[in-house]
Design goal:
Blueprint: E1 24-25, E2 31-32, E3 34-38, H1 67-81, E4 85-89, H2 99-107, E5 114-119, H3 124-133, E6 138-142, H4 148-155, H5 160-172, E7 178-182, H6 193-203, E8 206-210, H7 229-237, E9 242-244, E10 255-259, E11 265-269, E12 282-285, E13 290-292, E14 301-302, H8 304-308, H9 313-325, H10 345-348
Parallel strand pairs: 3-4, 3-12, 4-5, 5-6, 6-7, 7-8, 8-11
Antiparallel strand pairs: 1-2, 9-10, 10-11, 12-13, 13-14
Helix pairs in contact: 1-2, 1-9, 2-3, 3-5
């Protein structure tokens, strides 16, 4: 088994990139066309790699963007900044009362972006048909184990049955391909790698494993305890024949592997050990209206304040362009000076 070759960051800054016109271009030539929008920092699970069992102090409601404010910023991104994909995340976005309307506003834009959702699946049985009717293209559901006891250990909630029902509801509603995101943690759910793959193969879901990243609220992550991409592939190879998918990867974060000759695939997102920062095409908007040009950024750029003070679309777009220019060439996890962002994943958006 051989690993696919990963893109190398372009490290020569571009002097001719300037705000004022065009899309979201950074000084290393990368263009952000994929927007991740966090709709809430709240969640109904307490996954170990994300937040403590007691939860976190949630954002005050007044600080969270309204439905209209979210829709406006997404529109600016699509119409003025070249955004082609919009992914709504959380926290848990199904906890956002206006979710269906926000999705409908995004899918009504021209040019129409691809619109997707990342969720833990709890509540999908109720809302999946409405999301499909609003135009949602597809869905990602987080699922780290099929064992009820380990699910409760990881998420501090006994909700596995609800997640499995949500997956089935998404598929029935046509929100396909239904993708499953899984994080493996050493000593807890490593043994679930093969069962998760077998489950997804049986049901027609697309499985992607994600290396655990240093984005936990309690900053307990250590690289030595992380289950790496190589660890995952080794486990899967004990039960299935894996071969690299020759389809062009582009800016997609997952390395794909054909399972038993295909056509089914499994993806591995090696965010830490096989950085793909050189091909990054993402920009992020937090639930309280802050632009983040990198998942691991230590700084944010405020759009909420100028938006509420009457800034024009053009002024907001230009602030977004300026925020993009400062994007670093890589996340720097391997650098001895690396510091986790102050916000955990639940407050940034996946």
């Amino acid at each position: 088994m051989t690993s696919t070759e990963l893109p190398t960051p372009r490290l020569r800054p571009r002097a001719d990139d300037a705000p004022g016109t065009g899309g979201l271009v950074d000084r290393y030539g990368r263009v952000a066309t994929d927007l991740r929008v966090s709709l809430t920092d709240r969640c109904n699970l307490r996954c170990t790699y994300c937040m403590p069992p007691e939860g976190l102090a949630w954002l005050p409601k007044v600080e969270v963007l309204t439905d209209d404010e979210v829709a406006r910023l997404v529109r600016i991104g699509v119409e003025q900044l070249g955004i082609r994909e919009v992914r709504f995340t959380g926290g848990e976005p199904l906890l956002r009362p206006g979710l269906v309307g926000i999705v409908a506003a995004a899918t009504a834009l021209s040019p129409r972006p691809e619109v997707s959702l990342t969720t833990n699946g709890i509540g999908l049985t109720r809302v999946a048909p409405a999301l499909a009717a609003a135009g949602l293209d597809r869905i990602n559901v987080s699922l780290d184990t099929l064992d009820r006891g380990r699910f409760q250990q990881l998420a501090h909630r006994d909700r596995l049955a609800d997640v499995l029902a949500g997956l089935a509801a998404a598929q029935r509603a046509g929100l396909t391909p239904v993708k499953v995101n899984a994080v493996l943690m050493r000593g807890i759910n490593e043994i679930d790698a093969v069962p998760l793959l077998d489950f997804c193969l049986e049901h027609g879901y697309q499985l992607r494993f994600i290396e655990q990243m240093p984005l936990d609220a309690h900053h307990a992550w250590t690289r030595g305890e992380m289950v790496t991409a190589e660890d995952i592939l080794t486990r899967l190879s004990q039960a299935h024949d894996l071969a690299p998918d020759v389809e062009e990867r582009g800016s997609a974060p997952a390395e794909r592997w054909l399972v038993d000759g295909g056509p089914a695939t499994v993806g591995v997102i090696a965010s830490v050990t096989r950085s793909f920062c050189g091909a990054c095409d993402r920009t992020r908007l937090t639930a309280d209206g802050q632009v983040r040009n990198c998942l691991f950024a230590r700084e944010e750029s405020d759009l909420r304040t100028p938006l509420r003070e009457g800034a024009t679309d053009e002024e907001l777009a230009d602030r977004w362009r300026v925020a993009t220019l400062g994007k670093l060439p890589g996340h720097g996890i391997d650098d001895p000076s690396f510091l986790q962002p102050a916000r955990p994943m639940s407050a940034i958006g996946g």
